[in-house]
Design goal:
By secondary structure, the chain is mostly helical. The protein folds into 2 domains: 82 residues, Helix-hairpin-Helix base-excision DNA repair enzymes (C-terminal) (Endonuclease Iii, domain 2); 100 residues, Hypothetical protein, domain 2 (Endonuclease III, domain 1). The protein is built from 10 helices and no strands. α3 crosses α4. The longest helix is centred in the middle third of the chain and has 19 residues. The protein is elongated, with a radius of gyration of 18 Å. The two termini are 22 Å apart.
C-alpha cells in the first residue's frame, strides 16, 4: 500500500480539526480512574455498551477503594451486559488493588506503571496517557488500523508499526487530538464494510481504490 503524501496527511488533519476542534473519547467518566476502568472494559465491546454498564458500576463504586469493597462478584453483576465480563471484573478488581497499593489510589502518568496494571495493554495505556495527561500518544484500535491502511495515512502490517508511523507522519500540532479524530472517522465514516466515501472530508486525499458514492 502506498503512503499518502505528507502534505496530504497535514491537509487531512487540518480538515478534521476544522470540523471538530475539540474531539474526545465517547466513553463516559468522571475521573482518571473511571476512564482507566472504562477503557479496560471497552475491549471487544462498544463504547455505548460500556457506558450503559459503567453508569451502574460507577454509581456504586466511583473510586478504587469502593471498587475493592464491591468485590469481583459485585463488579460482575454490574457489567454482565458486556462481553468477557468475568475476566474484566477480575482485572478491574486487581488493578484497583494495585493502584491503592503502589500508587496511592491515583492513576500513574507513566507508561510502564500503567502497562503493569492487570488488563492494561499498550492501547489502553495510550488512551489514558493521551486523554488524561495530554501526551501525544496514538491508540491504534481496529478503526485506526483499518483507516491508516485503507487511506494510506500510515500503512503497516501490525498495530505497533501503524502507531509508530502515525507518530512520525502526523504534524506535531495535530498529534494530541489525532487518535480521537481517527477513531471517530473510522467509527462513523470510514466504516469497515461500506465506507461512506461520499460523506468523507478527506476522500480526495485518500488512496483507497474502491471508493463508494
Amino acid at each position: 500500500m502506498a503512503d499518502m503524501k505528507l502534505a496530504g496527511v497535514a491537509e487531512a488533519f487540518r480538515r478534521l480539526r476544522e470540523t471538530n476542534p475539540d474531539p474526545t473519547t465517547e466513553l463516559e467518566y468522571g475521573s482518571p480512574y473511571q476512564l482507566l476502568v472504562a477503557v479496560v472494559l471497552s475491549a471487544q465491546a462498544t463504547d455505548k455498551g460500556v457506558n450503559l454498564a459503567t453508569r451502574r458500576l460507577f454509581a456504586l463504586a466511583p473510586t478504587p477503594e469502593a471498587m475493592v469493597s464491591l468485590g469481583e462478584a459485585g463488579i460482575s453483576e454490574q457489567i454482565k451486559t458486556i462481553g468477557l465480563f468475568r475476566n474484566k471484573a477480575r482485572n478491574t478488581l486487581l488493578l484497583s488493588h494495585q493502584l491503592l497499593e503502589r500508587h496511592g489510589g491515583e492513576v500513574p502518568h507513566d507508561r510502564e506503571a500503567l502497562e503493569a496494571l492487570p488488563g492494561v495493554g499498550r492501547k489502553t495505556a495510550n488512551v489514558v496517557l493521551n486523554t488524561i495527561f495530554g501526551d501525544p500518544t496514538m491508540a491504534v484500535d481496529t478503526h485506526v488500523f483499518r483507516l491508516s491502511n485503507r487511506t494510506g495515512l500510515a500503512p503497516g502490517k501490525d498495530v505497533l508499526e501503524v502507531e509508530k508511523r502515525l507518530l512520525r507522519r502526523i504534524p506535531k500540532e495535530y498529534l494530541r487530538d489525532a487518535h480521537h479524530w481517527l477513531i471517530l472517522h473510522g467509527r462513523y465514516v470510514c466504516t469497515a464494510r461500506k465506507p461512506k466515501c461520499g460523506a468523507c472530508l478527506i476522500h480526495d486525499l485518500c488512496l483507497y481504490r474502491d471508493k463508494t458514492e
